[in-house]
Amino acid sequence: MAIERTLSILKPDAVKNNITGKINSYIESSGLKIIAQKMMLLTKKQAELFYEIHKDRSFFGELVEFMTSGPVIVQVLVGKNAVSKYRQIMGATDPKQAEKGTIRGDFADDISENRVHGSDSLENARKEIDFFFAEHELV
Ligand code: GDP
Predict the structure, then answer these.
(1) Could you tell me the domains of the chain?
(2) Handedness of CA 52, 56, 61, 67 (dihedral sign)
(3) Were 47 and a residue from 52, 64, 93, 127 both cysteine, which residue would form a disulfide, CB within 3.0 to 4.6 Å?
(4) Which of 11, 87, 115, 117 is catalytic?
């Protein structure tokens, strides 16, 4: 099993609803470690760039507006198979399809406000971590 890093975002709805501690407890209980964490307010430009892959989707405008609607917490998680493990504990993109016991299954109701982001591949994890963090910030 490979030790990997992945990028996590606790989205504005998680911060607004005061559940970032609860979400971090799901992360920590899974064995993943948080090696970097910061709260920030994304600019429109940052959100557009981060979600560039979805720029032609009908929900892109709504997604950018949501991601800039309040502070987020960006994190780097490390552990065995961190990319797929975090995707597992996040649950399905659409909370209605997410299993109980997952973050989205337990805390979210709607696909447009699904509490968390997690990188979907090792390659994207590297790019996404670089997008938010300098190497020296990963402790
Ligand atoms: P993820 O990797 O599980 O976050 O899912 P995707 O990469 O497919 O989508 C990125 C994000 O876009 C999701 O987490 C949702 O916040 C948002 N999203 C996806 N599909 C929809 C949709 O149909 N409507 C809205 N409003 N947002 C969506």
Answers:
(1) 3-137 (3.30.70.141)
(2) negative
(3) 64
(4) 117
